[in-house]
């Protein structure tokens, strides 16, 4: 492994430059305005895979954004690792809150600031560079396949079809993903599960046009007021979600699982201080780690209606809207939840308004078996690289396609992320520590080494 | 009066052209981007007053937008009418809902479509043209003063100071305003009261930055969710407003007043059909006419927070905002109500968020004495011009400065409006019927005639 270490050491400056080039693409998949940038990003990724030594590299078209595929098959008898990542990023707005331009990566005290720095460009590109290091030093111990998509931030609508249509090509022994976070670099951790997601949009219509709030106010239902009342009713006084059937099938943790989970290092005061909040919030009877890691939630991601400009406009709006998403846990079927939400939301609407509910996207929750060779390999790789055994954690985020891989390809996923919760994913000033970037590149080859050994036992 | 009639008849096309020119100024007082247009509108109005025969015309500077003053004193022993109006208009957005450009007046089946067509350019300009007709035919029966301001749509912040500082100059026997509506041209009506207003803006802050709704969702208070819960709590199950002390001092109508009010021609089915709503909404125990005319209300005029762009963004927003205004009735002090709202809104905020409340503007409610010579003069003028006695009505809108005139100048106001509730005030496609515009110009001189007679009795 020394030769790999040396190669990485010698090439660190270039590895960073290449990441910067990747981060300069504004590959925002949610906004059609960036279409050409997203497409250009796919071509860039494909070229970098070729440069690193991948074969059969292809930018595979879909009805949405393309999926970049590449592979290196050294021996069919050796195990195969399928690396998944995504080259698309979240929208950067609100732009005015960025200290430096989101698509001009800037380094401040050892951190790379840019949209996508951590989620997921900085993390998936570690694999491309680790692969390059293994190739150039003749140290690739198993076969490797790359599948880097461009629609993760908008629900991976076309990945499912692609996977189903390419089972042979994608055949592997494990899926390896770096798109999650660790507790810290001093306390490395390893995700054992992810939450599912159901993302909805609602539209409440009152009168057929904006009205003068003096002439009509008090006599015609105000859709903004009604929307607020409907959203307020979705949580009860214990912050339980009130949608009938929502919790059906939710797997409750055993006392021991709860004990393990809560034994993870976590400083509530630090947490509140970092967010500048006086009190945390959430479902009664659960700790903060349980609330984010093991419980389903419902969040308003956006709300708008009426006059939102400068000054005052005495209008009774015709329409009000909200984007509402639910995080799901094992035992919840995201499509069923989407239906339950729709039925319930329509059912609680008073006759004085009309309601329209639209489904954006979603995915199932996932739990990794910690006794698998792949999980053990990741565990050992982190232990060796950090000099400290990782803490098993349950992440609150979602990578909807993880469940899909198991369904379609029949293989498990290992979530070996190197980000931090404080990396401002989906927020202004997203960052990724240069230290974490390099640490990931150094740790990945160790995973391959241990995985090859354990699989061949 | 025949000579006035003839003069108006001969000049109708020009009167319409001049109104179009006035409507082409985008005098949006709420949005600083239109500053120069608003100022240009003031100059235009001043010039038209001079052309009509007014003296001592002045564009009076204030710390905001100027007030246009002009007068014609024919004899100090004659009564004096102070005409008030405003040359500023509401913002035109949402622009995409206009069928023709808001600042390019367009006539469709006898109606002038433009922002400000009715509120208030079309209505105050009737007075300028009626004045011109009386002047050119030597039929002005009393003294007249004009005070046309440019900040009515943003709270008339500087009018109060101006009036207080110009009591001599503004001395009059009555204030005459055309900035309200009639039931219809077949059923002319006359306003006997207006509601007061208190316009607030609230800001709810959760975490100090937008967060990933997966990583933090369910564990940190979402300001959009909390704002919805707070707004929802402002009405109880009977749609009574829950702010402690809100109804203190509200004057309840007598059974007879209620009977009179509800005897006004009103077709609930037509009302619902026009707005395309299945059910009306409002305070239990009151009719629609009572709800808008005699009861205080609370409306969300705008709400926003989080991601409102295309597609999906899984963000837990840092902030959520709302513009909330209350319509007030006689017995409610608008400044006290603003304080009560602020205290209450802050008091119901959970510790997990921070709340900021800002006061936009407001004004007191007003009721006209129906036995005054001025009200009687308006009543007779309408009866003569429409061939039908007007129905007394209570309007839901607010002209905060009406109460101020009484306070500062010690004179009553007559609200002789010629608009219609269906004129889309503050909405896209605001309109004003050419018929109403001409009808107003014909009716105003009759008011002057009757007022001069009644005052001199």
Secondary structure topology:
Two copies of one chain form a homodimer.
Chain A: H1 2-23, H2 35-52, E1 55-60, E2 67-72, E3 80-86, E4 106-108, E5 111-113, H3 121-136, E6 143-149, H4 159-165, H5 167-170, E7 174-177, E8 181-182, E9 189-194, E10 196-205, E11 211-212, H6 223-232, H7 255-263, H8 268-275, H9 288-293, E12 297-306, E13 315-316, E14 319-328, H10 334-347, E15 354-363, E16 366-367, H11 373-386, E17 391-394, H12 401-409, E18 413-415, E19 419-420, E20 431-433, H13 434-456
Parallel strand pairs in A: 3-6, 3-7, 7-18, 8-19, 9-17
Antiparallel strand pairs in A: 1-2, 2-6, 4-5, 5-20, 9-16, 10-14, 10-15, 11-13, 12-14
Overview of the molecule:
Chains A, B: GO terms for molecular function: metal ion binding; peptidase activity. Chains A, B: This is Peptidase M20. Two copies of one chain form a homodimer. Helix content of chain A is 35%, strand content 22%. The first copy, chain A, has 457 residues and is of the alpha/beta class. Chain A has a six-stranded mixed β-sheet, with helices on both faces. In chain A, strands 12-14-10-15 form a four-stranded antiparallel β-sheet. Chains A and B meet through strand 10, strand 11, helix 6, helix 9 and strand 12 of A and strand 10, strand 11, helix 6, helix 9 and strand 12 of B.
């Amino acid at each position: 492994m020394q030769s790999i270490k040396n190669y990485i050491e010698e090439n660190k400056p270039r590895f960073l430059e290449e990441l910067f080039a990747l981060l300069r693409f504004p590959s925002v998949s949610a906004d059609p305005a960036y279409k050409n940038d997203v497409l250009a990003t796919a071509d860039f990724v494909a070229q970098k895979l070729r440069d690193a030594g991948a074969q059969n590299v292809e930018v595979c078209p879909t009805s949405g954004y393309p999926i970049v595929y590449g592979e290196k098959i050294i021996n069919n008898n050796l195990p195969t690792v399928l690396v998944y990542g995504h080259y698309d990023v979240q929208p950067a707005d609100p732009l005015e809150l960025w200290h430096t331009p989101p698509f001009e990566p800037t380094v401040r005290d050892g951190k790379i600031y840019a949209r996508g720095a951590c989620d997921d460009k900085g993390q998936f590109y570690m694999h491309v560079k680790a692969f390059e290091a293994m190739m150039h030093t003749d140290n690739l111990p198993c076969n490797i396949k790359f599948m880097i998509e461009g629609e993760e931030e908008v629900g991976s609508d076309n990945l499912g079809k692609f996977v189903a249509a390419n089972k042979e090509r994608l055949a592997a022994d494990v899926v390896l993903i770096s798109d999650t976070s660790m507790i810290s670099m001093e306390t490395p951790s390893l995700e054992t599960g992810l939450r599912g997601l159901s993302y909805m949009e609602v539209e409440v219509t009152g009168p057929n046009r904006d009205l003068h709030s003096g002439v009509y106010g008090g006599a015609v239902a105000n859709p903004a007021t009604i929307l607020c009342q409907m959203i307020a009713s979705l949580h009860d006084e214990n912050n339980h979600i009130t949608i009938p059937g929502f919790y059906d099938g939710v797997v409750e943790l055993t006392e021991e699982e709860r004990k393990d989970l809560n034994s993870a290092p976590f400083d509530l005061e630090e947490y509140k201080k970092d967010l500048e909040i006086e009190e945390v919030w959430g479902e009664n009877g659960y700790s903060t780690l349980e609330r984010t890691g093991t419980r389903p939630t419902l969040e308003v991601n956006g709300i708008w209606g009426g006059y939102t400009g400068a000054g005052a406009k005495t209008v009774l709006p015709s329409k009000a809207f909200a984007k509402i998403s639910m995080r799901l846990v094992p035992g919840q079927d995201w499509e069923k939840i989407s239906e339950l939400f729709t039925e319930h939301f329509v059912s609680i609407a008073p006759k004085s308004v009309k309601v329209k509910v639209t489904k954006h996207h979603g995915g199932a929750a996932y739990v990794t078996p910690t006794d698998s060779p792949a999980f053990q390999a990741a565990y050992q790789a982190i232990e060796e690289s950090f000099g400290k055994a990782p803490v098993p954690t349950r992440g609150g985020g979602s990578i909807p396609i993880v469940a899909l891989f198991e369904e379609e390809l029949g293989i498990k996923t290992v979530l070996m992320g190197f980000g931090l919760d404080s990396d401002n994913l989906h927020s202004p000033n997203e960052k990724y520590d240069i230290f974490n970037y390099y640490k990931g590149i150094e740790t990945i080859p160790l995973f391959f080494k241990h995985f090859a050994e354990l699989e061949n036992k």
